[in-house]
Structures are given as structure tokens and as C-alpha cells.
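Form P-L/3: holo structure prediction, ligand zinc ion.
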Amino acid sequence: MQADPCPPAAEVRVLDQVLQRQQPGLEIRGYSPRLATTMFGLPSLKHWCVWIDPNPEPVDRWSLRWRRGVDSALRQWSQLLPITLVENPDRAQIRVRRQRPRRRRTSTGWRASNGRSILQLVELTRDGQRWREPLVEVLVSPELRAQVLEATALHELGHAFGLWGHSDQSSDALAVHQGSKPVLQPTLRDKQTLQWVRQQSNRFGLISED
Ligand SMILES: [Zn+2]
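OUTPUT (holo model):
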């Protein structure tokens, strides 16, 4: 029998940590210098457990469309990194919710967004062992055109998998603003940047006792 790749979490402790600026490195891949990091290194895991808001009963066509958009976006990223879908949020490091993000106050008024990703760092117990993990709440609004919804999910999931910054090129999935044509696939620059993130050592994962 294979070990459960996503055992449920217990004794969760939220760490008082925020994203911080990266020290400039020598190796630049894609838009890697634009990414934020944490005191434990880039918030990336070798393997991710993802939970997606289930469809409410009775299932309506809006929630079906939402789910289809999120599934398509997740399928794109799953070609680049190992992901297990789970049915219980306790088992997940990434939780995707069908929820419109709250408007944010800016200097010129209020700004609405289609999606948002919120990062926390936690220490928790899985299978009797202590782990340090990123825990990401991904909000994707249900009130979007199908392609915008899919592009929003792709962008927000990119943050969740460790791309905590924005590309300066509008054709990339992680561009600051969506262009007129929604980006439905990670570009080469997105892929190179994610690959770079996954090659960096960090202090996430199993916490050793010594
Ligand atoms: Zn973003």
C-alpha cells in the first residue's frame, strides 16, 4: 500500500511571517527577481495537495462553469508540478474557494478584483510528524465570463504554487493586469520562473528534530 500523499493536518500553528523582498541572486530565470520570498525561503513544496470548493446542491450551471474553469487552470499547472486533489480542506495546502474577493481601498477609491491569493505560513502535524508549509487561500469570483474565470484561476494558482510576484510582460499568466486576451496557459517565461522557484532550497517540508 502506498503512503497517503495528503494526510490530514492537526495542531496547526500559524507563524507570524509575511512575504519579504528577495536578496538579489546571481541566476535570473524569467521574472524570478520580481518574486517575494519568506524567512524560510521561497514558499514552495515538492508536492502539493489542492482542495477545490465542491459544487453546491442542487448543482447549477454557474457553479459548473466555475468548476470547469478552475479544473482547466489546475490541469495546466499539473503538467509542471505534482498535485493531488483532495476532498477535505484539512488535507490541502491550497484551498480554492468560489468567492468574490473583498474590494480593496486604494488612494483613488475602491478596487474590485476577480481573484486573490492569501498566503500564510504554518507548522502542523501530519501522520505524527511536524511539517512547515505554506497555506494558501485562493479566491476566484464566480461572476466572471468563462475565459476570464479560467485566466484568473491560472494566475491565482500561479501565486499559490510559489510565484509571489508579477511579470512585467502582459502576455504572461502572471502579468499584473489581464490584457484584452485572457491568458489560459503558462508561457515559457512562467514555466522557467516556476522551475527556478522549485530548484531553490528552502526550509519548508518535514521539520527535522535536530
Ligand atoms: Zn496577481
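COMMENT: The chain has three helices and nine strands.
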